[in-house]
Design brief:
Blueprint (H helix, E strand, L loop, with lengths): L1 H11 L1 H17 L19 H13 L6 E6 L11 H12 L6 E5 L1 H4 L11 E8 L4 H11 L9 E5 L1 H35 L2 H25 L8 H30 L4 H27 L8 H22 L1 H9 L27 H11 L1 H16 L20 H12 L18 H12 L10
Helix pairs in contact: 1-10, 1-12, 2-8, 2-12, 6-7, 7-8, 8-9, 8-11, 9-10, 9-11, 10-11
Length: 460
Amino acid sequence: MIFQRLGRLMYRRRILVLVLAAAFIAAAGIWGTSVFGRLQTGGFEDPHSESARAVTALEQDLGRQATDVVVVYRAPEGSDLTVDDPAFADAVTTVLDGLPGEDVVAVTSYWSTGADLFVSGDRQETYAALQLAGADEQSRTDAYERIADDLKAAGLTTLRGGPVPIAADVNEQVSADIARAESISTPVLVVLLVLVFGSMAAGSLPLAIGGLAILGAFTGLRLLTTVTDVSIFSVNIVTMLGLGLAIDYALFVVSRFREELHAGRGVEDAVAVTVATAGRTVAFSGVTVAVALSALLLFPQNFLRSMGYGGIFSVIVAMVSALTVLPALLSVLGHRVDALRVPLPWTRRSTARTADAEQGAWARLATAVMRRPLPVLAAVVAILVVLGLPFLRVTFGGIDARVLPAGTESRVADEAMSQDFGAGNAGNPIDIVVRGADDAALTPYVAALRAGDGVVTAEV
């Protein structure tokens, strides 16, 4: 059998497999984790939609017009300073005029346009809209990082917001959240696995495979970012699916290996039988899940495709690790897989359980299900339908500053733009592409737009 031969190969080449795995972990920890700086926060739009075609037409015919950074400048709390005072104007214009041309393509402000649209109602606050240099999101992010500190105006409160700062803050927040989640979940998982196996050695193996699966998936995504855009949503599915499946697969393999050892097999035979049985189950499960997740690649929206990328990488790395690295680890440990035992009531008779496995609670549950498959199927389907009913009323939204914690600078800037300058501010306009019309036709059209409900102003 192929899987049995694979198991024996992993036993005989166990040192080489573990050395290669260690080298991969080192590379993935350094290069693979750099994926966080290359992920995109957008990707919700269909590239064939009307809005996407309008953006493409604008960039092709008129050049890129998007605002990348919005900087809000406020007078100090309790101050009478306004944008009309020379001190306020000098502080802001000195900053804006000093921005490097290689990083900032265009700057639009109250002083460059004279438009009161850039001034708050109390005239103590204004903002500047910046367009950054760069052909893609990553290059514009790099440009922002170079000028971020230079945007602060002396004597004024400065808030940096807009698409690029928000994206940078989201990436940073996701990285911090994942680190915090892992710091909380890892000790909990260790305790649970030790309770399941009754051994520190056996309990640590699924967690090791889980970590390898996550690092491997990050490396796959990092490689993918060199050829296409990848959404930050891919990280969420990697940590969720990668860790869960890796631990699940490792539980299958480790449990079967221990059973084979307790049944009297030698280490090599135990590894071979384990891979031939539990390993085959892992392989079929991994291929099935990966094929199912590949359906996400058919969607035009990048964030859905990216979730497919992350899920597929997670499943593949978890499956391959459980079929190669884990058997190699078990080959090295051998009977020491039960080392560092934890004295628990339900583990004292573990060596005698193999012969009575068909009398356990799980065996009784499986037998009951097989006796009445149709009623059980109907009950499970009914429960799933009830649980899925709220999905019919789901409302989807894009990623914006609201996903960030309250008090984050880019979110505060976004809130200031909405509260102090209104929905019609120039930092967030709606662009309409009109083709084949002369000035005589455009004039009444623009006038009609200005008269529309909720429209603050319309300009050609």
